[in-house]
């Protein structure tokens, strides 16, 4: 029974740690990590089930084991989300400016870039190596991710290396659509007006009084 109490206590500590990391992620990304939150919710249900069994004197081992797995998944989802944000931004900057240009504007880039490459290797390898996944993700979270976030913050602050974020890109798309729509509408109006004037010139050639009279009737005849 003592082992069960210890594992439940460890789950509570892990819950607090993951919850703190999720809040840090939300502050960092400006968005919620839905997958981590879902895993945390599933873990919470199993933790409650485990406590109910433990209090009743029954064996809560299956529920505790499932809860522990959910907690690990939630922890990994937070790490994955943060790594993805940094890797995506660094990839955009490299694609737009090139590594040499980045190195000129951000001298620390060459020191921190190997961390980016190593992170990609760990994430890709962890999917294949389930045995060492927990240890590799612990290294990611505590050793690599702080350095990646440091590089991410430096790149964001350098105006010469600016790349639009998703909100900027969406706003630009909306502006382009609005401009194209306006041009289409104006073009349609002028096309219709041109057709109308061509017909008018053919129907009433060089009769300015008739032109004025029909324009006046067209504009105000409905009154």
Describe this protein's structure.
This protein has helices spanning 2-29, 34-56, 61-97, 99-105, 109-128, 133-157, 166-203, 208-220. The chain has 223 residues and is mainly α. The longest helix is centred in the C-terminal third of the chain and has 38 residues, at 166-203. The N and C termini lie far apart (92 Å). 20% of the residues are buried. The model has no long low-confidence stretch (mean pLDDT 80).
- Gyration radius, rounded: 32 Å
Range of helix content: over 70%
Main beta sheet, described?
none
Q: In terms of structural class, how would the helical and strand content be classed?
A: mainly alpha
Strand percentage, roughly?
under 5%
Secondary-structure element series: HHHHHHHH
Q: Based on DSSP secondary structure assignment, what is the total number of beta strands?
A: 0
Number of helices: 8
Terminal CA distance: 92 Å
Mass-distribution shape = elongated
**Which stretches are low in confidence, meaning pLDDT under 50 for 5 or more residues running?**
none
Query: Taking all residues together, what is the mean pLDDT?
Result: 80
């Amino acid at each position: 029974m003592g082992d069960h109490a210890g594992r439940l206590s460890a789950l509570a500590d892990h819950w607090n740690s993951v919850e703190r990391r999720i809040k840090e992620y939300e502050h960092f990304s400006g968005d919620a990590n839905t997958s981590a939150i879902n895993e945390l919710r599933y873990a919470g249900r199993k933790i409650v089930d485990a406590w109910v069994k433990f209090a009743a004197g029954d064996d809560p081992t299956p529920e505790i084991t499932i809860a522990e797995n959910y907690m690990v998944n939630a922890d990994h989802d937070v790490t994955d989300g943060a790594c993805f944000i940094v890797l995506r931004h660094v990839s955009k900057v490299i694609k737009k400016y090139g590594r040499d240009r980045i190195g000129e504007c951000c001298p620390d880039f060459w020191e921190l870039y190997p961390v980016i490459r190593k992170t990609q290797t760990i994430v890709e390898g962890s999917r294949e190596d389930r045995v060492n996944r927990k240890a590799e993700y612990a290294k990611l979270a505590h050793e690599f991710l702080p350095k990646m976030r440091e590089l991410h913050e430096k790149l964001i602050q350098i105006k010469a290396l600016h790349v639009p974020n998703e909100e900027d890109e969406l706003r630009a798309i909306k502006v382009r659509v609005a401009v194209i729509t306006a041009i289409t509408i104006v073009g349609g109006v002028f096309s219709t007006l041109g057709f109308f004037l061509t017909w008018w010139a053919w129907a009433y050639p060089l009769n300015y009084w008739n032109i004025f009279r029909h324009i006046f009737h067209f504009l105000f005849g409905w009154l």
